[in-house]
Amino acid sequence: MEGPFKYIREGNGKVSRVIRMGTRKSQLARIQTDSVASRLKELYPDVRLEIVAMSTIGDKILDTALSKIGEKSLFTKELENALERNEVDIVVHSLKDLPTSLPTGFTIGAILQRENPHDAVVLHPKNAGLTLDSLPEKSVIGTSSLRRAAQLKKRFPQLEFENIRGNLNTRLKKLDEKDDYAAIILAAAGLKRMGWENRISQILGPEDCMYAVGQGALAVEVRAQDRDILEMVSVLHHPDTVLRCISERAFLKQLEGGCSVPVAVHTEVKGSMLYLTGAVYSLDGADCLKDSMQTCVEIDNKVSESAQECVHVAVTANNISSSALDAAEKLGMNLANVLLDKGAKDILTTARKLNDAR
Ligand code: DPM
């Protein structure tokens, strides 16, 4: 019973391992961590779970656009430090906030079934009943996502777009209690988890706004060498979601995009086929490169033997067919290469420069 792990002796004399889950302090992060905790509790009734909440630098800097701080891992660094020091064993994140490469020693041990991955419009109460099409000209839409702004500027040129920051609670408050924004755009998944589904007035389909890589899926980050925990969380993997998200992450990685470039995707699994559409945009949406590809991801039950073999864009999924995972990763890389051949690099470099200069 030595070592980095904490054990407790139950009243009946039984000794059980305590698994500690690290979380940010925001309400969304707590809800997401609690939902994974309750899944684990159902699957492993004997395991004792403890939740350790910490605030990260990213939570404290509320005045800088996320697109400027997103790539610096400000939301994840402290939690990874705690993982490294064995202070926690598991950290739950929104997959879309996790970079396509993690620092050495960490891996994504589980990707849970995706919620609705689309973006949603939340209206100021005075605009109830309207849509992005019917809002008055020059209405101000709040979003600090370059991806959302690029696509929506092109699609709805009569509207104006302005940054809005802060966690979900802060944003809804800024929307409702001031007159600065006619509407804001948020991920449907986050709104649903917060219990604010009733505020969604419109879900944006792929013709209006494609979603971010990994959007709507929860990821469980663990120590790459912690075999026990890896095995324990691996049962949370949702195979279709894993395949979709691996193709999306491979696409982003091959483009050398971070979480703060105007890159958007759309994926589907139908039968044994995985479909990926991916696009890159200039900041105003005027330039856009977009293409689609598909691959077969038939499950052949060949699961990989060594953990080393089975890491795809930082995801460890030893219980999913390695040939399906390989195919999904290749799909993302191949689609990115098609767009790179058409000049995607220039579009992204320019977007990044302009954004840094703002
Ligand atoms: C990332 C982006 C945003 C978050 C950029 C993007 C939105 C930033 C903004 C990478 N992370 O989507 O183009 O609107 O200013 C974030 C949210 C969730 C995870 C909130 C949201 C919840 C949904 C999920 C912030 N990260 O996007 O409305 O689990 O996917």
Automatic annotation (TrEMBL):
Domain Porphobilinogen deaminase C-terminal residue range list: 243-294
Domain of life, source organism: Eukaryota
Cofactor(s) this protein requires: dipyrromethane
GO CC, any one term: cytosol
KW Ribonucleoprotein (keyword) present: no
Keyword Phosphoprotein tagged: yes
Subcellular location: Cytoplasm, Cytosol
Residue ranges occupied by any Porphobilinogen deaminase N-terminal domain in the UniProt entry: 19-230
Keyword terms, alphabetized: Acetylation, Cytoplasm, Phosphoprotein, Porphyrin biosynthesis, Transferase
Gene Ontology MF term list: hydroxymethylbilane synthase activity
EC number(s) per entry: 2.5.1.61
CDD domains noted in UniProt: PBP2_HuPBGD_like
Metabolic or biological pathway: Porphyrin-containing compound metabolism; protoporphyrin-IX biosynthesis; coproporphyrinogen-III from 5-aminolevulinate: step 2/4
Catalytic activity: 4 porphobilinogen + H2O = hydroxymethylbilane + 4 NH4(+)
Enzyme class: transferase
Main location: cytoplasm
SUPFAM superfamilies for this protein: Periplasmic binding protein-like II, Porphobilinogen deaminase (hydroxymethylbilane synthase), C-terminal domain
Subunit structure: Monomer.
Biological role: As part of the heme biosynthetic pathway, catalyzes the sequential polymerization of four molecules of porphobilinogen to form hydroxymethylbilane, also known as preuroporphyrinogen. Catalysis begins with the assembly of the dipyrromethane cofactor by the apoenzyme from two molecules of porphobilinogen or from preuroporphyrinogen. The covalently linked cofactor acts as a primer, around which the tetrapyrrole product is assembled. In the last step of catalysis, the product, preuroporphyrinogen, is released, leaving the cofactor bound to the holodeaminase intact.
Family: Belongs to the HMBS family.
Name by which UniProt lists this protein: Porphobilinogen deaminase
